Amino acid sequence: MSDAVAEAPVADAAAAEIDASLPYNNAVPGAVLGRWAEESDGGLIVAADKLIPLMTHLRDKEEYDFLSSVTCVDYSKYGGKLRAGVSERFDTVYHLYSTSKGGGHVKLHVRVPENDTVPSATAVYPGANLQECEVYDLFGINFEGHPNLRRVLLWDGFNGHPMRKDWHEAYYDEDAKPFKSRHPAKGYEFHEDKLPWGKNTTYPEGWDPEDWREPITYVPVSQAPGHDELGELDTESIVVNLGPHHPSTHGVFRMIARIEGETILALEPEMGYLHRNHEKIGERNTWLMNMPYTDRLDYINSMSNNLGLALAVEKLMDIEVPERASYIRIIMAEFTRVINHLWSIGFILNDLGALQTPALYAIEEREMILDLFEEVSGARLMCNYMRFGGVVRDLTPNWIKRALYLVHERLPHTLDELDRLLSGNEIVKARGKGVGYLSPQDLIALSISGPMIRAAGIPYDIRKVDPYCIYDRFEFDVPTLPDGDIYARYYIRLLEARESLKILRQALRDIPGGEVQGLPAFASATIEAGFGTIMGGRGGYSFRPPEGEVYQRIEAPKGELGYFLVSDNKANPYRYHVRAPSYINLNGLGPMSVGYKIADAIVILGAIDIVLGEVDR
Amino acid sequence: MASVDPAGFQQLKEQQYLHDQITVPAELQSNVLVTTLDKAYNWSRRSSMWPLLFGLACCAIEMIATAASRYDLSRFGMEVMRPSPRQSDLMIVSGTVTKKMVPAIVRIYNQMAEPRYVLSMGACATGGGPFKEGYNVVSGIDKYLPVDVYVPGCPPTPEALIFGLMKLHEKVERQSIAKVAWYRKESSGFVPVPILGPDIFDPRQIQLIRENTLGEGAASRSSGGGEVRVMPELLSDDVKQNLEAIRTRYLAKMKQPA
């Protein structure tokens, strides 16, 4: 970086006096050291020791009550100019939003030298809990004051912190794709053949497997009193482990609960059993290569994951999307929401003990929607349908007709049927009402988003408060329910699916070009902008977005899905982070379960509606 | 009295479940079927093969879709997914196998009663798939467990999974009770459970790992926070030969009966 331009548009942290022109410096003197970039979307560089006072100020005085994302960037190989002359290796990055005001974010950067610590944001925003654990796990940043900093995705004893730029996996080839070794002319080598044990593993030098003792993973569920203070019986609390292989954990997820009788005293989630290194692979990939990977994040809703990434990169590159493509995207995203809500209603009932039957009813209509997806994208589940600048191909003939039939005839009928069969059901009411309650304030403090907070009376829907794509053209309501319990979380999904149908009806009616193709639906409309055709040709996969960073969030069916991308003007993202709603919603699992029975914890988890591909990434 | 064929007699005949040499007199055909023990045994196993209720990742969603009403696994007597490994015959490894998960998978496999089968569903379970290069991803479950059927796809469609299951049925039908491994005295299907170290390791490979971490040439191979490590270009020819010898020895050892 020695040849970087000297007059980089970044305020030098060392030279900064207290600059009153910077925001919040009057309220918290010396907190903000500078701006991240000139045309900033609010990126502020914050002094580490002033982070907590500043966050407290932002939360209490400026109404930024929602900590959306906490992540970290390792700048040690950063090739861009924006950070020239900065010696600190890491930045921890915070995105704050306001659930009452809506609108955009405040972004905070804290520069962290190697082996230094950052104050933990959990003191102000308890929702930072899991995200800080993740940063600690993958980057090795220590958060001072974090109540329970542990390796959350990998295991105790794992060698190194894999998201650091100088950490290399066993099959390491090159820093960025396309790998030279994969060139067709070179002859393909199997990675397995490069390592003597033929597996994707690597061991530190001098390590002796015979002396190895597996570290005992300490998952702190024992803060609760060990003996009862209630009755005269001498009881003792025990620790119960659920998972990772358990039929009602929705995948490979583990809960460790301390119970007294059947009552939960403490519960800690343990994940990482599906940690497939989405971000590390994402930083090796070129930008477009990440599109199919996003399908596999929340694998029930591949279309909305696609949408998030496409919007983020378009924001970074400033691409215009053709009108028709925007409509197609919204149609797909809303169909996905219907699928997701049907699926989750079915499986909440599954967790309530109504094994399979409600789920079978719910999945039936899902297949009809998947047929539509398969027709346009070629795949039922992993659609990989959107591209930067549009969608990969136009709708097929008669697609809209079939979609209209679903939207007007079948799906409303299915939702009504589920409503009729389930909503008044005595068992659903008895098991759902009043169970798993958490107050709206707690939910926001824990960074929980999506149907979970709308079921607690907060009308916070990103499609309304911070509209993206063309959602501002449609008329729909944000349904809320006041209760904040399992029943409300079940019922809100039914209501939201109905709102999605409302959007779908409008979009299918208004889509420009109608049934037959005529208007451009894909990004070949942006050929003039120099991208080539997005699918074929060199320009399609090796474009270089301008230097900068972007955070784009969408209202995914499970909550707020955010993509945080850092570009240093290369063909690969420098940093690729996914703010996964399922993962962060798990912050609430412990607080929600305490005090209820162990059988309720299963339903509480089911009503959060997690998908492990997204939790662990 | 004219003989009445039992239901599906013609079908059984066509599928060669009936003995091909012993013929039953026509008047007894409604009462007597002659078959071999193998065929009866395999037919019953094939027709009630209970999968383990075991989903790992995206493929599990397609597995659920296969079991649901449209594709209907109960046509094959397979709709009874058992959450307990003790009660199940087939493990459908449906999704990415991660290092953190593989000890649990091997334990579950060991807990299944024989005869047991493993179906590797999808690209990830077969060879790591799109996530192969990931630091927490196992390059296919067959690195640890014996696999009977591989189903390609990412994820395989329900049709593909059903095709894989039918292939497994064919395999089951070809087995002979006299020869199968699980009735033999010497054979044991126990797979040592991998251990989570600095990276996951297979107890069967301890010697091999020691030779590499403690032996010569170890420095160039260490990773994790270190510099760029290139294999095998950095290695001299001697070390390469050495590694090749280790590999061959290891493979030969694996082929020997336990």
Count every helix of chain B, treating DSSP H or I runs of 4 or more residues as helices.
8
Determine the number of helices of chain A (DSSP H or I, runs of at least 4 residues): 18
Largest interface: A-B, 70 and 74 residues
Oligomeric grouping of the chains: heterodimer
Defining key terms:
heterodimer, A: 617 residues, alpha+beta, Cytochrome-c3 Hydrogenase, chain B, 5-stranded mixed β-sheet, 3-stranded antiparallel β-sheet, 18 helices, 17 strands, 33% helix, globular, B: mainly alpha, Rossmann fold, 7% strand
Question: Could you please describe the fold and organization of this structure?
Answer:
The complex is a heterodimer of chains A (617) and B (258). With 617 residues, chain A is of the alpha+beta class. Chain A folds into three domains: 13-144, NADH:ubiquinone oxidoreductase Nqo5 subunit (Beta Polymerase, domain 2, 2-Layer Sandwich), CATH 3.30.460; 227-270, no CATH class; 278-616, Cytochrome-c3 Hydrogenase, chain B. Chain A has helices spanning 51-60, 128-139, 278-284, 290-295, 302-317, 323-351, 357-377, 399-423, 426-432, 440-445, 451-454, 462-465, 486-510, 538-541, 581-585, 589-593, 598-608, 612-616; strands spanning 32-35, 43-46, 66-74, 90-97, 106-112, 117-119, 142-144, 238-242, 245-246, 251-252, 254-260, 263-270, 386-387, 390-391, 548-556, 559-567, 575-579. In chain A, the strands form six sheets. A five-stranded mixed sheet of chain A has the order 1-2-5-4-3, with helices on one face. In chain A, strands 8-11-12 form a three-stranded antiparallel sheet. In chain A, a hairpin with a 7-residue loop joins β16 (559-567) and β17 (575-579). In chain A, α6 (323-351) packs antiparallel against α7 (357-377) and α9 crosses α13 (486-510). Chain A starts with 31 loop residues before the first strand and ends with a helix. In chain B, a hairpin with a 3-residue loop joins β4 (195-196) and β5. Residues 218-233 of chain B have low confidence and may be disordered. Chain B is mostly helical and 258 residues long. Chain B has eight helices and five strands, in the order αααβαβαβαββαα. Chain B has three domains: 1-35, no CATH class; 59-183, 3-Layer(aba) Sandwich (Rossmann fold); 202-255, no CATH class. Chain B is globular, with a radius of gyration of 23 Å. Chains A and B meet through β9, β10, α3, α7 and α18 of A and α3, α4, β4, β5 and α7 of B.
